[in-house]
Design goal:
Blueprint (H helix, E strand, L loop, with lengths): L4 E2 L10 H5 L4 E5 L10 H9 L4 E5 L3 E2 L5 E8 L2 E8 L11 H15 L5 E4 L15 E6 L3 H4 L3 H13 L2 E4 L2 H7 L6 E3 L6 H4 L9 H10 L6 E5 L8 H10 L4 E5 L16 E5 L6 H5 L4 E4 L14 H7 L4 E3 L3 H7 L4 E2 L3 H13 L2 H17 L2 H12 L9 H26 L1
Parallel strand pairs: 1-5, 2-3, 2-7, 3-6, 4-6, 7-8, 8-9, 9-10, 11-12, 11-14, 12-13, 14-15, 15-16
Antiparallel strand pairs: 5-6
Helix pairs in contact: 2-15, 9-13, 11-14
Length: about 425
Amino acid sequence: MNLPVAHALPGGPGSTAQDTSSLRPPLVVFASLRWRFDWQRPQQLLTRLAKHYRVFYVEEPCTTHQDAWLECAEVAQGVEVLVAHTRCDAVGFHDDQFPVMDKLLAQFMRERGIVEPLVWLDTPRPLPLVDALNPRGVIYDCHDDVAATSNDATLRRREARLMQIADVVVAGGPSLYQSHRRRHANVHCIANAVDAGHFAPPVLAGQSIEAVSARAIHAAIPNPRLGFFGVIDERVDLDLVARMADLRPDWQFVMAGPLRGVAPEALPRRGNILWLGPQTYAILPHLQAYWDVCMLPFKHAESAHHAAPIETLEYLAGQKTVVATPVHDIVALHGHIVRLAADAQAFVEACRTAMCERGPLRRQRQIDALIAVHSCTWDRAAQRVHQLLVEFAREPSGEAADVAAALVASAVLRQGAITAQYARG
């Protein structure tokens, strides 16, 4: 069964001439979220790791009414997104999708001369696709405690199997590290970090499209403004937000971010709650510049089962006052900087106190925030991950090396012929 693989024109964003001649080891990533859904941990780490690896980011498949094919697009330097288009109606990394995905990925690997890649998973669901790749190393970047939170018995079994075969387990925060270090001998805590330069306070009078848009959004919103940006999913305590809005109808609550697993009709509707929807990564520093307090209204009872919230350091990098529910990892990592409140009344009081804070206490909190921000960068996090992977990033040896060399040489010649044909018009 010969399945087509779609590529961009030579010389364009999907050009592969450079990658096929590169000596960087291949890193195949099976991801729980689409690359363009939101700019979060996977994008931050993988764009940096692409300096050392050829990154192939495998998304969930899409349904098509045509013959199955594999879409391939370069989304960042050294990072290509692969999306299987199949006739199967099953949603996500469903077992019914795997036979066709296996064939599509196998053909892609042959064409690119990829033998024994490193394999990275941030969800156990696509684990059945891994064996056929004959990986030289398996990395599990753990965001959630599947064993504690999922009612899906298949998913729990799959994670248990992943824990058995993974060479490295990376936990996204202290609570996940404590949970998984008893289940695997090589677990490392690499919590979410921050791009401090990106989130540094911007110039409010700037003329960039992001500055102008943020200014326009807030022009009709009176102070005080309490804001949140991030994925709005099951972790966000919507009831808490509603209760705070009811307690302080004179305050404005600005909520920005895409919905995941939350229906639009489930969002509390109040005159002083503004739902902005998905926003670009570029506009986030400009949005928070207009907020008097940045909020982290998470369900803290379930916090031990998730990675450290990525938004905490992003707020602190913007030199904002932060009030949060007592999420385990926030308390463990930043409890001396962030104000903590467990219920709506306490949260409102903490926000009021934060807005009134002046003098030495405020200056010390800002100093502590800057120290935390500059010690927790994505560059450092990616370097730590690279150090964990480098022992598995060896080139294939023996017969596998001969096969890889032949495949790469063939791919280079084929790409050269296509390029020459394209140049002739």
